[in-house]
Amino acid sequence: MLSTRQLFDRSTTWAGRAVRTMRTHPVVTVIVGVVVIALVVVLARAWVTRGGDMDEALRLAPAEATRVSFTDWKGIRESVGADLDADSSPEEVHEMIDKAYSSDLTSTSVLPDSSGLLQQHFGWSPATIDWELFTQSTEGALTIAHLDDMDSDHLAEQLTSMGFEAPKDDPNDGGVWDGTLVPFSTFTDSGVDSETTPQISYIAFLPERDLILASDGRRYLSDQVDKLGDGDLHEPMTAAAGRLGDPLSAFIYDGDYTCREIGLGDSMAADQDQADALVDNAGEINPIAGFAMAAEPGGDVRASMAFENDDQARTNADSRAKLAVGPAPGQGGSFDERFKLGKVAADDEVVTMQLQPKNDTAVLSDLANGPLLFATC
């Protein structure tokens, strides 16, 4: 794989080769050289901006989102060896969900508890969608699912048969379906699912983009349909997410959410005292501006922390590496019982940590809730 610099180095060679071949046509030589260099620039830019499914999904996240979770259902199905399609039974879908849960790949999703219901009655589920993005902010929650070659007419028929109220606007162009009066219990009496998520109360389809949007708030969903992809997530969140590669599942938080939800503020006094002593021993700790953690296809977990500047990143790479091999107040035991610490690196303002789970420990879901390792305030 060529870096941008290597591409430009080759462009020089190609341009030089053109000069040597076409000595008698200097004007043509210049034109060919310019065209080649321009082509290389285009290719280099295309490579830099190319991303996986998570990058595509994050570009659709509402700008005000403070908590985002991504689930690559297609990748997860491949990872657990599940060959499913639209005709698979709810029981087969649950079997896949159970395997994915055992591999700590489902904590990022809001769909598992309703997966059988979705498969049997909605026409889409974790058995068929490519990926899922769930976002939360003070304004509302939104679920976005990508379903390749989506047949929106068929999905609309499914909702109609269940009793969803059809939208007043075009049902195939973002009109909102209302399922608040649907008696979901009548569809789950066979034991397919024990509960449904409120995140599928309202649903909209964007077939030209192969997207399904859902929410527990009608107005919020309608607003997001109109401005989908118009804004950008907070820059520290995208900086942290940009170091995750192409994961199977991932959490991305802004700094305030990280401070509030995965710090030790609600822990017992004894745990907080122990944490304070460990932090003092580890060195300087700065607040995290953007946080991300992901389960990788090979089984590792990668954590990514964005800071205010490069100096803070270098400082925290050292101090948090010390914390990552010590006790885990508030959770019990120690971090080195949960994972082997791999490479810790500071790149610009972002620190990444490679974590190798031990003894099938659920590192992703475990560390996303309250650990000393990511204490920020």
Which key phrases capture this entry?
14 helices; 377 residues; 11-stranded antiparallel β-sheet; single chain; 11 strands; alpha+beta; disordered N terminus; 3 domains
How would you characterize the overall build of this protein?
The chain crosses the membrane at residues 27-48. This is DUF3352 domain-containing protein. Keywords: Membrane, Transmembrane, Transmembrane helix. By secondary structure, this protein is of the alpha+beta class. The protein folds into 3 domains: 4-49, no CATH class; 53-226, no CATH class; 235-374, no CATH class. It has helices at 4-21, 26-49, 53-58, 73-80, 90-102, 115-122, 152-162, 218-226, 235-241, 255-261, 269-282, 310-323, 335-338, 363-367, and strands at 67-71, 131-136, 141-146, 177-178, 202-206, 211-215, 249-254, 290-295, 301-306, 339-347, 350-357. It has an 11-stranded antiparallel sheet with strand order 4-5-6-3-2-1-7-8-9-11-10, sandwiched between helices. It is globular, with a radius of gyration of 24 Å. The chain starts with a helix and ends in a 10-residue tail after the last helix. 40% of the residues are buried. Residues 1-51 have low confidence and may be disordered.
